[in-house]
Write a structure and sequence with these properties.
heterodimer; A: 199 residues; alpha/beta; Rossmann fold; 8-stranded mixed sheet; 4-stranded mixed sheet; 14 strands; B: 264 residues; 8-stranded parallel barrel; 11 strands
Chain lengths: 199, 264
């Protein structure tokens, strides 16, 4: 069973419906025990980084999530969920993240409209089973004001151009994060979710 | 690069699509879900459901529509039309829509924008502005638009440019600019309105009202600097299809998302 973690950061119904559409069993959960027994974990989320970490700590979910990743259980962070995987964020002060991948979350430089809202392309940097059957250069739906600046090149799976080339897909082992919303990205997003559900 | 978005708008009343649609046998033109799936399959980048239900059960009807759409349509969609309270916004977002669009209620209760943005994030709150061109007698050469509400029937005395800035300050993550002058004319979007607001605020602008064909979309996405073009009639009556519009734009170097089918 795929556990979609509910920690008070945005609506999770779309993620659940998309996973169910591709044939996966997916439940929205908020209890420590449910995260501990899940085969796969999805961490979605929109909103502020600091609030998200505060909510995860308050719910006692930080350790179970980090442990699941360390045990090699498939993990997918979506949007804010990707950013939370990194060391720290500069969104409204400095906030520590889950720190499973080294790097920083930064605000887009001046020059483009922020937030970025809409469809943009992902240029694949490294072959992974997550993107199996998804053509290089596919468009995905993005909504965000901050981006991850990964410290290690080996964690970079996909890049997107929005004034700068930034990391839109990161991954190490079975732990992945995507800056876009696969649940709102039509065929390309559904294919990615299906791949993940079959890990 | 970020693609410009093409957004069909569906008018829905009591859960049924009401704008005259002449689709052929394979689609129940009155069923918004079937129509939405069709636009999705054709490569629409986003959908807007404009709900004009005027009954006490409105919120339940809208909630049901949103839940049904979110089970079969996997592109972003917005719900607008008579969104008046925080509970209305909650029904739309928690049902699975990406955004709630607020129009007249923002004029009466601007705090609604802030409250919605604080609870669901700015990206979930679209402010829609109905604007009409006016001549300011003191400055007849300066372009001026007034904000109107109730479908253009009520003046507000607010200037559209100032109102756009205020809505963004209050937390709106996107603005829809609906030109009342152009609406229904098929003579093209109000290019100047879109350009001036685009230069004034940082959030994406969705142009609405006046689309007669792909050339109008080209104008507003290039000269008008809009991020997205919304249209209803030209798609519903099959004057143009979404792939035709996107092909026209791509030939003129506008970045659009091509429709790609990936086997699941």
């Amino acid at each position: 069973m795929i556990a979609i973690v509910d920690y008070g950061m945005g609506n999770l119904r779309s993620v659940q419906k998309a996973l169910q559409y591709v044939g996966a069993q997916a439940e929205i959960v908020s209890q420590i025990e449910d995260v501990k027994k899940a085969t796969h974990i999805v961490l979605p989320g929109v909103g502020a980084f600091g609030d998200a970490m505060k909510n995860l700590h308050a719910a006692g979910l930080v350790d179970p999530i980090v442990q699941a990743i360390e045990q090699g259980r498939p993990f997918l962070g979506i949007c804010l969920g990707l950013q939370l995987m990194f060391s720290e964020s500069e969104e409204m002060g400095t906030h520590l993240g889950l720190d499973v991948l080294p790097g920083h979350v930064r605000k887009f430089p001046e020059g483009e409209r922020v937030p970025q809202i809409g469809w943009n392309q992902v240029s694949v940097q490294k072959e992974t089973p997550l993107l199996d059957g998804v053509p290089d250069g596919s468009y995905f739906y993005f909504v965000h004001s901050f981006y991850v600046d990964a410290k290690e090149q080996k964690d970079v799976v996909g890049l997107t151009d929005y004034g700068i080339d930034y990391v839109s897909v990161a991954g190490r082992g079975c732990a992945y994060g995507v800056q876009f919303h696969p649940e709102k990205s039509q065929d390309a997003g559904l294919k990615l979710l299906k791949n993940f559900s079959q890990f | 690069m970020l693609a410009k978005r093409i957004i069909p708008c569906l008018d829905v009343k009591n859960g049924r699509n009401v704008r005259g649609v002449k689709f052929s046998a394979d689609v129940d033109a009155g069923d918004p879900i079937e129509l939405a799936q069709r636009y999705d399959a054709e490569g629409a980048d986003e959908l807007v459901f404009y709900d004009i239900t005027a009954s006490a059960e409105k919120r339940d009807i809208v909630g049901e529509l949103v839940r049904r759409v979110s089970e079969v349509v996997f592109i972003p969609f917005t719900v607008g039309g008579g969104v008046r309270t925080f509970e209305d916004i909650r029904t739309i977002i928690e049902g699975g829509a990406e955004k709630a669009s607020i129009n007249s209620a923002a004029v009466h209760t601007p705090e609604l924008i802030t409250q919605g943005a604080e609870s669901f994030g700015s990206q979930a709150i679209v402010a829609s502005i109905d604007a009409i061109r006016r001549v300011d007698e003191k400055q007849p050469d300066v372009l001026h638009w007034e904000v109107v509400i109730n479908g253009g029937r009520t003046d507000t005395g607010k200037g559209a440019l100032e109102w756009a800035e205020e809505l963004v300050d209050r937390g709106a993550g996107e603005l829809v600019l609906n030109s009342i002058d152009a609406d229904g004319t098929k003579d093209g979007y109000d290019i100047e309105l879109n350009r001036m607001v685009s230069e004034l605020v940082d959030v994406p602008i969705v142009a609405s009202g006046g689309a007669g064909g792909p050339e109008d979309m080209y104008e507003v996405l290039s000269k008008g600097q809009a991020s997205a073009a919304l249209a209803a009639s030209i798609f519903h009556y099959e004057h143009y299809s979404i792939p035709e519009v996107k092909a026209y734009l791509a030939e003129r170097d506008i970045v659009v998302r091509p429709k790609v089918s990936i086997g699941l």
